[in-house]
C-alpha cells in the first residue's frame, strides 16, 4: 500500500531534497491515539469483570451521548426523551431476538440476534420519526418539555404491555451471536485469559463506538453539520440561506434516537436483563449532564462526558470504604449513587458557568483561544 | 352523573394547583426567558420545610416558613447560579437549571428517603357532602387558596410597580433597563415568587387523598410542565387554562380508569402528557402563546 501512495510524489517531479516523513508520523496526537487504542484493546486481558462492565456501560453511554449531542449540542434542540429511545432499543432487541416459546410467556420473534439488533435500532429511528411532527416544529427548551411526554408514555407502556416487556420485572436479554461467535458466558480461552461475555462484548462495544463516533464526526464536518450549527446559531438565517429547518430538525431527531437505540441494545446486552425503572427521567437527565460536562456539539466531548458520568458511580461504589462522606447504601450516610449525582449535578452547573465548551476545551485549550468565534 | 360531577370538581381543584405551579414557571420565563427545569425541586423544598417544621411550630407558621424557604431557595438559585452566566444563549441556561434540579432533588430525596411525610394540615380527611356529590375539604381549600393567590398575583402583575417592571422587562429587557428597571431585582423577584407559589402547591399536592410528601411528589409536580407549555409558555392566562385542562383530564382519566383498562393502569399520570402532545401537534406555540414573529 505504501508504495502505491509514494509513487505520485516521485512521479510529479516536485523538488524534494530529502524524503520527509509524512506529517501524521510527527504529530504527538497520532501516538496518543495509538497508545489509547492499544490500551483499550489490551484491557480485557488484565481487568476483572467489574471494571469491564463499567467500561462497557461507559461505551454504551458514549454512543447514546453522541446521539443526543448531535441533537442538543449541534442543533440546539433540547431533548429529555432520550431514555425512551434507549428503552425502545433495549426492549426492541429482546422482542426480536427472544424465542417465543420460552417459559416466561413473553412475545419473541426468535430472529437471528444480529438482525434483531439492527431492527431494534431501526425501530428506535421509526419511533423518533413518529415524533417528528413535534420535533420538527418546536425548538430548544420547548421541545425539552414536549419530550417529557415520551418518558412518561414509555414508562406507561413498559409497565403495562406485559407481553412485550415483562412488566415490572423486565425480561431477560438473549445473548448476541455474530458469525458463529456467541457473546455469552461460555468460556473461551484466549492467551490464558478466560473470555466471558464482558470480554467479548468489550470488543464489540469498541467497534460500535468507533463506528458511531466516526459517523457522527462525518455528519458534523460535512454539509449536514454546518446546516445543523446554522439552525442552532440562527434559525432564521439558516432558513433564508436555504436550509430546510423543520426537515433537518426532524432528521437529526431520528438520527439521535437511532444512536440511543443502539446504546440501548448494547446496555441490554451488558445488563443481560432489562427493567423498566432504569429508563426513567433520571437517565435522560444523566445523558444531558454527560454532554454538557464533556462539551456541547463535539463527539469527543460526548465520549468524555459519558465516561465521566457513567464511571463515577462505579468508582464511588468500589471505593466507598476509602472515601470520606461516602458510605455503602443503607447505612445512613451518602450512598455512592447519590454522591455521584451531587458531583455531576454540580459539574453541570460549574461547567456551564466557568468552562463554556466543556471538558474537551480543557484538553484543547490552545485551539479554543485561536478560534474564539466558534464559542457558542 | 354524580361521579362525573365529582370528578370534574376534583379535577378543577387539582388543576388550580397545577396552575399555581405553572404560573410560577411562566413568571420566571417571562422575566428571564429561562425555562426552569428546577421548578419541581423548588416545590419539593417548600413541602419539605413545611413537613419538618409543622410538629414544632404548628401548621400555619410552618406553611409560611415553607413558602419563605422555597422563595429563598429560588432566589438563591437565581443569585448564585443564573446571575453568574455570562453567555447569551438561554437554552444553555435551561440546561443549568437541569443541573440545579439534579442537585436539589438528590439532596431532598436523600433527606426524605423512603418516608411519607405528613404536612399536618387542619383539614384531614373530612368530606363535605352536598346532595349526591361529596368532596374532600382539602380539595375545596386547594381551589379557594389557588384562586385567591392567582387573583392576587394577576392584580399585582397588572397594577403594582413590581408587576409593571416585570412586564416591561419581559417586553424588552434592554429598554426596561434604560428606563431604570433593575433587571437583577426583577428576575430575583420572579424566582422568589415562583418558589413561594410552588410551596403552596406542594401543600395541596400532598394532602388528602394523597398520602403525603414523598420522593414521587416531584414527579407529580412535573405535570405542571405540560400545563405551562400547552397554555403557551409566555402567557399567564395560558398557565391557568393549561393547569385546569391538565387537572380535569387527569381526574377524569383516573376516575374512569376501570372503563379504560385496555389502555393499562396508571392512565391518570399519563393523560396530561397525551393532552399536551395532541395540542402541540395542532398549535406548536400552545393555546395562548404568542406565535413567534421574527424580524430580520
UniProtKB/TrEMBL annotation, chain A:
Localization per Swiss-Prot or TrEMBL: Cell membrane
InterPro entries: ABC_transp_permease, LivM-like
Residues that span the membrane, as ranges: 30-47, 53-71, 83-102, 114-134, 141-159, 201-220, 250-271, 287-312, 342-360
Entry GO terms, CC: plasma membrane
Region (Disordered): 1-20
CDD domains: TM_PBP1_LivM_like
Pfam families, per the entry: BPD_transp_2
Topological category with respect to the lipid bilayer: Multi-pass membrane protein
Keywords (A to Z) from UniProt: Cell membrane, Membrane, Transmembrane, Transmembrane helix
MF annotations from Gene Ontology: branched-chain amino acid transmembrane transporter activity
Superkingdom as given in the UniProt entry: Bacteria
PANTHER family: ABC TRANSPORTER PERMEASE PROTEIN, HIGH-AFFINITY BRANCHED-CHAIN AMINO ACID TRANSPORT SYSTEM PERMEASE
Name of the featured protein: Branched-chain amino acid ABC transporter permease
Taxonomic placement: Bacteria, Bacillati, Actinomycetota, Actinomycetes, Kitasatosporales
TrEMBL record, chain B:
Keyword Transport: yes
Cellular localization per UniProt: Cell membrane
Pfam families: BPD_transp_2
GO biological processes: amino acid transport
Gene Ontology MF terms in the entry: transmembrane transporter activity
Record keywords, A-Z: Amino-acid transport, Cell membrane, Membrane, Transmembrane, Transmembrane helix, Transport
Transmembrane segments: 12-29, 59-80, 92-113, 133-157, 188-208, 270-290
GO CC annotation, single: plasma membrane
Membrane topology (UniProt): Multi-pass membrane protein
UniProt keyword Signal, yes or no: no
Domain of life per record: Bacteria
Family designation: Belongs to the binding-protein-dependent transport system permease family. LivHM subfamily.
Record-linked PANTHER family: ABC TRANSPORTER PERMEASE PROTEIN, BRANCHED-CHAIN AMINO ACID TRANSPORT SYSTEM PERMEASE PROTEIN LIVH
Protein name: Branched-chain amino acid ABC transporter permease
Native species: Streptomyces flaveus
Taxonomic lineage: Bacteria, Bacillati, Actinomycetota, Actinomycetes, Kitasatosporales
